Amino acid sequence: MSLLSPSSFFFLSLLLVLPLSLASSYPYKASYRIDCGSATSTTDPFNTTWQADDRYYTSGATSIVSEPLHFRFPHEKTLRYFPPSSGKKNCYIIPNLPPGRYYIRTFTVYDNYDGKSHSPSFDVSVEGTLVFSWRSPWPEGLARDGAYSDLFAFVKDGELDLCFYSFATDPPVIASLEVQQIDPLSYDAATIGNNHILVNYGRLTSGSNQWGPGFSNDADDFGRSWQSDAASRSPNAKSSIKSVTTRERITNTNQPPNYYPMKLYQTAIVSSGAIQYNLAVDAKLDYLIWFHFAEIDSSVTKAGQRVFDILVNDKNVTRVDIFNSVGSFAAYSWHYVAKNLSSTELTVKLVPVVGAALISGLENYALVPNDLSTVPEQVIAMRALKESLRVPDRMGWNGDPCAPTNWDAWEGITCHPNKDETAVVISQIDLGSQGLKGYISDKISLLSNLVNLNLSTNSLGGTLPSGLGQQSLVRLDLSDNQFTGSIPDSLTSSSKLQLVLLNNNLLEGRVPEELYSIGVHGGAFDLSVVYICCIRRGRNDYDFGLPQDLMSLSAKRNRYQRQKSLMLLEMESQHAKGLPTLPLNPR
């Protein structure tokens, strides 16, 4: 998938965000408006409250734009940025959202807030899918004025993850964030499904100036803002186009599932010649194009008086007779999916057949397929490990551990698709010598695809969790820590174990004989340099003796660690540099 360029779909002029003005009949109430970087709640001139930026973010710092007077609203003047000390991946995580579809809008601005005259390069993801890509240098107007961008996405797990991924040392920035619940069946979700994000590449109103939330007091239940279509029309056709408007009531508006406002259909453009739009897009994606019409010319009184064809990239996709479909002064919408575009321009043309062509509005959305995400129970495990291991902010353990898949996974983590390639699983955790000071959460048992676990040379303590020892586990290195207690029996459950290093800890109790058998089969098992050591008692058990028995431990180790292959000797010699990578299939 090609990266989505801000210049393709962002509003490049300074836009104004107004309240969502939900009608009393509108049933979807979950919403957030966050003034990123603000220490206090703010209220804009339209009496909309923006809550303080005192929660939901994973890390970062705050600042203000260099020219506050250049911006009209408080939520455009403050920002949150994520310096390198916050890690490469940072997120806003919005909790307690009912599962469903959401309208999400951000305002992004640089305005030389840091005095470095270097607009940053970074990516933005929603629910683990890459949606926006900012690349330095930004166009001058965009860097100074900022831009709003929006999309529609499904939230399935009760929380929304909006994440930022930095490039080199560039700190990502965000000035405001809006989240509004919308009808889950909107935009033909029944056909398209809930496995795509709809990224706005143009939401146009015909025959009108900009309006809606962000431009005027005109309401839109979803919070959509509508731009004038004038800049998107082909220059060759502008001279023959006329604007028409009405104050008459338009029926079929503000209705589920799309809740289109009446104002959209009270203006239009008409032309006796072709009306053509040239829309900037990114190649290799599908686009959902939504057309809006209303017959607001009272002289059209029957079917057949106004008929025109719609062509998308010169392909005739339908013929429209508005009066024949819905009569006069009634809203009519039709949509079409343009698939796998090979060009960076999408052309839409309305060609008259009888009378003049007419259009009230046009929407264009990129259908961005949801990226693979980490298996939910493994996300739970990794978040628990983040807390129990006290992973520092600099490692960027935020959002989904493995998604988007075209970003690097969390630092020290390796991921792979599962067998049927419907999700991603954790196959390796390599956190040796990271200054960790916590303990191993028992949620580690949920990492059922874990092949390699290296937590060596830290200051971890506590007991080893009973769930440690997944069937998939091949290499385990917990050496040079402060673990106490006994070795859990679960560690013997993996028949694939080739390396177990537990030396330099404070372990005690029985040692299952199965672990010693690893050495017999050419693997390595090391309990050396512990404070207490092994004495044979029964057939399957080893108890720990006192430190003076170290010589007997050494003899016993030699008994079980027989002839070793050159590969194993090399593996042990590299232990201080981290566990080796073996050609294993983690699936």
Automatic annotation (TrEMBL):
Keywords: Membrane, Signal, Transmembrane, Transmembrane helix. It is a single-pass membrane protein. It is found in: Membrane. InterPro entries: Leu-rich_rpt, LRR_dom_sf, Malectin-like_Carb-bd_dom. Residues 34-366 form the Malectin-like domain. It holds the Pfam family Malectin_like. Residues 226-245 are annotated as: Disordered. This is Malectin-like domain-containing protein. It comes from Citrus sinensis (Sweet orange).
